[in-house]
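Practice problem: predict the structure.
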Amino acid sequence: MAFAEVGDVRLFFTDEGTGGPPLLFIHGYSCDSHDWMWQLPYFAARHRVIAVDLRGHGRSSIPAKGFGARDFAGDLAGLVDGLGCGPVVAVGHSLGGVVASALAIEYPSLVQAVVSVDPGYLTPDEFRPLLEGTLAELEDPVTAVQALLGSAGYTPTSPVHLKPWHMRRIAGVPPHVLRETGFALFGGPEALVFYAASAEYLRGRSCPVLAIYASTDRAALEAPLLTDSRSQTIAWDGSGHWLHQERPDEFNGVVEGWIASLA
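Answer:
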């Protein structure tokens, strides 16, 4: 375990295993690198594996600003450069899928492939009023984010321990981090959550992409945007938002098999 000074932040990360390609695991909004505990031992047996807490999350430092997807991607570019581990396979969940894609677009020499897990981008534009309404409630950001993620992230088959763990963790994130990240995602100049803002941007990924969704409809939105013939979309209908935690063995096998196919 280690910390890295990258620009104005101190990032907590773990760096385990050997072998290529190296994998960089990127968690979602209000989460931290513990999200990948179902993956790290598996992949560290075969690859160099880096798991990082984004700025303002987990054990990383808590700056006053810089919570847009490109800000997070810039931090990770500095980390990858400092570790000399690129190009990586960037594996991102939810917000992490947005950040992994931004890393691939803004710093293409550092990313050889992206695995995007029920990513936060390409949300249909008709959901914008609902999400902007949630944004307006961020005077109490903990309650608002718990309501947002708690209402749609789980199914009757989701492991019962996941939701209480996730909700408790949201309560521990500094309120301004929840607020500023929410503004950047849903209402700022990037607003890369929504289809209109993200579709053209995602076409800038020149590397192969594996996108795993909990909905066939959302997977179908991404398929036309993939530019590399090795890219693939998968839908696990009926799963909750945390696919890699609900179906870890299946997830690990699918990702490892896809990475092997790139060689």
